[in-house]
Amino acid sequence: MGSPFTIAVKDVCKRFPDGTLALEGVNAEVRAAEFVSLVGPSGCGKSTLLRILAGLEPISSGQVTVGGFAPGTPQARAEMAFVFQEPTLLPWRTVLHNVALPLELRGVGSQERLARAQEVLGLVGLSARAGAFPRALSGGMKMRVSIARALITQPKILLMDEPFGALDELTRQRLGDELLSIKQATGATVVFVTHNMFEAVYLSQRILVMTPHPGRVAEVLEVPVAYPRTPEFRASETYGKLVYQVLSVLEGGPAVPPKPDEVQA
Ligand SMILES: Nc1ncnc2c1ncn2[C@@H]1O[C@H](COP(=O)(O)OP(=O)(O)OP(=O)(O)O)[C@@H](O)[C@H]1O
């Protein structure tokens, strides 16, 4: 997947036409191949920020670059894919043809796009269901299809808006592990919106904690634990302390990091 790719958000404000000030003075940077989560209470502007990065929403002031390009430009769009909370699959198409759709829209020939669709279905463990229709899939499987569809264009950046929000805890954890494997295999940069602090700590290298009215980045927390993350990490004291740290910032308290000797390698 290649060249370094970074997201830079400088002093961004977003006011909607009805006057709502959704974001004010937001600064953020995402390094190439980094996994960054956006967390914060409902209405703090997480989805708005993600939609701005995707070029789906204009900013009112400030500066945003995605891999050096303005969001929404063909160059920026070519490098990213968006995964929503709802898998939004076309019910009349098989899994394979849903996954192949982005390549079809780019004019890639049938043989090549179906071969690539098979490949990415393998990445999400769904090769055996290529011929199934969405109605025959569980919620977790539908989300895997949605992720495969996002991966088929080999995006350098994956923007994910609460992708596992509608799933049960176990499926959520499994998909989280799969997502980290995919991220490691593809070198993709991931920006991930979640309400779940445990999920944010488990998956991320850094967490941007946002606060509302207007939406701001209150704190940037490092998760100083190397990949691969393991079930032991979930059971560790470090994990609990990091989650507590995020919650503390959300409640307006200090971001007291765990002491270095408490952090696992
Ligand atoms: N199209 C819109 N027009 C006006 N206001 C909007 C629009 N979209 C979002 N907002 C407002 O902007 C603020 C941020 O919304 P946003 O959806 O980004 O928050 P969020 O942190 O993603 O919330 P949630 O966790 O509930 O999804 C909220 O006050 C919301 O009501």
Return the CATH topology of the largest domain. Rossmann fold
- Count structural domains: 2
**CATH superfamily of the largest domain, called what?**
P-loop containing nucleotide triphosphate hydrolases
Cα distance spanning the termini: 27 Å
CATH class of the largest domain: Alpha Beta
Low-confidence stretches: 1-5
Kindly name the structural category: alpha/beta
Radius of gyration: 19 Å
Order of helices and strands: EEEHEHEHHHEHEHEEHH
Bound molecules: adenosine-5'-triphosphate
Strand content: 15-25%
Globular, elongated, flat, extended or rod-shaped: what is the shape?
globular
What is the strand tally? 9
Count of separate DSSP helical elements: 9
The average pLDDT score comes to 90
Strand line-up in the sheet with most strands: 5-6-7-3-8-9
Helix content: 25-40%
CATH architecture of the largest domain: 3-Layer(aba) Sandwich
Biggest pleated sheet: 6 strands, mixed
Can you give a write-up of this model?
Residues 1-5 have low confidence and may be disordered. The protein is globular and about 55 Å long. It folds into two domains: 7-79 and 155-262, P-loop containing nucleotide triphosphate hydrolases (Rossmann fold); 88-154, no CATH class. A hairpin with a 5-residue loop joins β1 and β2. The two termini are 27 Å apart. It has helices spanning 46-54, 74-78, 95-105, 110-123, 139-151, 169-186, 197-203, 231-235, 237-250, and strands at 7-15, 21-30, 35-39, 61-66, 80-83, 157-161, 189-193, 206-211, 216-222. Strands 5-6-7-3-8-9 form a six-stranded mixed beta sheet, with helices on both faces. The chain has 265 residues and is an alpha/beta fold. The structure holds adenosine-5'-triphosphate. Residues 16, 18, 20, 22, 40, 42-48, 215 line the site of adenosine-5'-triphosphate. Adenosine-5'-triphosphate binds next to α1. InterPro entries: AAA+_ATPase, ABC_transporter-like_ATP-bd, ABC_transporter-like_CS, ABC_transporter_ATP-bind, P-loop_NTPase. Keywords: ATP-binding, Hydrolase, Nucleotide-binding, Transport.
